[in-house]
Design brief:
The structure holds 2 protein chains of 2 kinds. By secondary structure, chain A is of the alpha/beta class. Helix content of chain A is 42%, strand content 10%. Chain B is built from 12 helices and 14 strands. Classes of the chains: A alpha/beta, B alpha/beta. Chains A and B meet through helix 5 and helix 6 of A and helix 3, helix 4, helix 5 and helix 7 of B.
Chain lengths: 325, 326
């Protein structure tokens, strides 16, 4: 059971993700942002809760819908927003954009625009820590769509055979772009696929911070203790289209409205107030602080220069070390 | 110096580097108890144990990806892909992930991963076990590509690959594993990337060859010598980085170039090298650069058919004569 401090941190993280993405939408609508922007709004409880169980030495791999994971793993909002705007001060010097934020110092091994592409990389992070003999763990975030990729199945098998400290977090938001999960996926609960790889698999309400924390705490303890991997399926929903501009032919406004009633942020807010763990005033103050930070991040990003094309060929290769220089 | 086979040379460097650096470990199909299908990891399990010498499931994309992740997390994995033909299954991790991570993420990440694999003819393995795919890896920025043609180069280049901070695709050739030559005993012996080997100095025609086509080119040069044609034979040894300067200097001297490789001629590395020669040494050329490569069909099983598809000594000799208008 997460304590008050942790729940408040999770609340703040969820608010950061929500406000950050709302700001990104506004920038997109003003033509300040380009490219594919995949919004996490509505799914914030997953990243915020899962990452609340991790340290900077633990790894994550993320997805095309990765802003939430990056922020929950400790990304600076200003550098993240600058990256969304393609600026030199962004996490990737403007080379990655929305789908490719990474921050190795915080253990974020990167977002990935190939569905399922990050899962083996997370397994490798877990393998590295096992070989080093640490108790650090590795978490892979991916969607329901990725659970039909070969890398999902291969990675669960490999992590299980080698008893690696990995947690597989399947964010089941019901759709792989436009295709409903029922049309593409052989099982109702994706977590049951864990059984095929001899590891625990649990399905939790992905809008319920407490349920996610319980599941991830158990999985993290198991992984840190050498017990091997776990698959956690978080049932959630994205309020926005697959990307900004999605015609959304696959669902109705009523579907979306029903899920908006289940907002994970409001749900934690009500819980904290009801259990007298916090107050409306305290939570409002957190929100105000977050909004100020997001506004500053937008200002920082807008004021930042574009990268200089003179340096476009930098960093294709690492020039340091090696015996070939 | 010791006389070693190409396979022994690889095995010895792996063992030496694993002794020196606990971050170096190996994984791949059949590499532990069996010591690799081609024997390049024999004895490593006994010395280093199952944590650092790992048999993988037949899941190429995922075990290469696990190598990518482990490299990002500070290890120095050497992953074996038994046949380069299986690299197609791992192309996402090789080309979309390993190659791009450093650049795409802003230049802070390092991926010190070596993927060892082998290609080419030599075992009568037909269309899905005999291909030569180095051009794929050369095409995508972010990977380095080495392709040794001798035991000494295999040893020296593999050490450089393991010490390099970038992902390296290390392309061996199955017909060379039993080939022998003198290899330095010095455990720091390395061959730098991007430095071609001039195997034979000559004044008439520049002959560029890689891997198993190098011994064929040596033979062709001997035959041509009897016709008083003096070949300068260059093995680039690494394709990324490519030592084009050595090739250009040679062409400036000879005015003629023939490039030979076992991969398909269409879109092969010969096309790239010939283009660069044309761009950089056009004024020196007395004839168009000639390319010799596999015919544009799937590698067939029957030995006679295979020989008909793959460049032979005679094909090299004929290409040299053509470059000389003979």
């Amino acid at each position: 059971m997460p304590d008050r401090d942790r729940l408040l941190r999770i609340y703040e993280t969820m608010r950061k993700i929500r406000s950050f993405e709302e700001a990104a939408v506004a920038l997109f609508e003003r033509n300040k942002l380009r490219g594919s922007v995949h919004l996490y709004i509505g799914e914030e409880a997953v990243a915020a809760s899962v990452c609340s169980a991790l340290t900077d030495k633990d790894y994550i791999t993320s997805t095309h819908r990765g802003h939430g994971h990056a922020i929950a793993k400790g990304a600076e909002l200003s550098k993240a927003m600058a990256e969304l705007m393609g600026k030199a001060a962004g996490y990737c010097k403007g080379r990655g954009g929305s789908m490719h934020i990474a921050d190795f110092e915080k253990g974020n091994l990167g977002a990935n625009a190939i569905v399922g592409g990050g899962i083996p990389i997370a397994v490798g992070g877990g393998l590295a820590e096992k070989l080093k003999g640490t108790q650090n763990i590795s978490v892979s975030f991916f969607g329901d769509g990725a659970s039909n990729q070969g890398t999902f199945h291969e990675s669960l098998n490999l992590a299980s055979v080698w008893k690696l400290p990995v947690i597989f977090i399947c964010e089941n938001n019901g759709f792989a772009i436009s295709v409903p999960v029922e049309q593409s996926t052989s099982v109702g609960d994706i977590a049951v696929r864990a059984g095929g790889y001899d590891m625990p698999g649990v399905t939790v309400d992905g809008n319920d911070v407490l349920a996610i924390c319980d599941a991830v705490d158990a999985a993290a303890a198991r992984a840190r203790g050498g017990g091997g991997p776990t698959l956690i399926e978080c049932r959630t929903y994205r309020w926005k289209g697959h990307w900004i501009g999605d015609p959304e032919v696959y669902r109705t406004k009523a579907d979306i409205a029903a899920w908006m009633e289940k907002c994970p942020i409001n749900r934690l807010r009500e819980y904290l107030i009801e259990k007298k763990m916090s107050s409306a005033g305290e939570l409002d103050a957190i929100e105000a602080g977050v909004q100020k930070a997001v506004d500053e991040a937008v200002r920082f990003a807008e004021d930042s220069p574009d990268p200089d094309p003179a340096f476009v060929m930098d960093d294709v290769y690492c020039e340091a070390g090696g015996s070939n220089r | 110096m010791s006389i070693k086979t190409y396979a022994q040379a690889i095995r010895d460097v792996l063992a030496q580097e694993m002794r020196k650096d606990p971050r170096v470990f190996v994984m791949g199909e059949d590499i532990a108890e069996q010591g690799g299908v081609f024997g390049c990891t024999k004895g490593l399990l006994a010395e280093f144990g199952p944590e650092r010498v790992r048999n993988t499931p037949i899941s190429e994309n995922t075990f290469v990806g696990a190598g990518v992740g482990a490299a990002c997390a500070g290890m120095r994995p050497v992953v074996e892909l038994t046949y380069v033909d299986f690299a197609y299954l791992a192309m996402d991790q090789l080309l979309n992930q390993a190659a791009k991570i450093r650049y795409m993420f802003g230049g802070k990440a390092k991926v010190p991963l070596v993927v060892r694999t082998q290609e080419g003819i030599g075992r009568g393995n037909a269309g899905q076990h005999s291909q030569s795919l180095e051009a794929f890896f050369m095409h995508i920025p972010g990977l380095k590509v080495a392709c040794p043609s001798s035991a000494a180069d295999a040893a020296g280049l593999l050490r450089t690959a393991i010490l390099d901070e970038n992902p390296v695709v290390f392309v061996e050739h199955k017909a060379l594993y039993a080939s022998k030559c003198e290899v330095p005993d010095n455990e720091d012996f390395s061959v730098p990337f991007g430095r071609a080997n001039v195997l034979r100095a000559g004044k008439d025609v520049t002959l560029v060859a890689t891997q198993y086509c190098v011994p064929k080119a040596v033979e062709a040069a001997k035959l041509l010598e009897s016709e008083e044609i003096d070949i300068e034979l260059i093995d680039p040894r690494t394709l990324v980085p490519l030592d084009i300067d050595t090739i250009i200097r040679s062409v400036e001297k000879t005015g003629r170039a023939v490039i030979v490789h076992e991969a398909h001629k269409t879109g092969g590395i010969g096309a790239e090298i010939a283009s660069q020669i044309t761009e950089k040494a056009f004024a020196y050329l007395d004839a168009p650069p000639e390319r010799v490569g596999a015919k544009q069909c799937t590698l067939p099983f029957n030995l006679g058919l295979e020989n008909a598809v793959i460049p032979q000594v005679n094909d090299i000799v004929n290409a040299v004569r053509k470059a000389l208008y003979l």
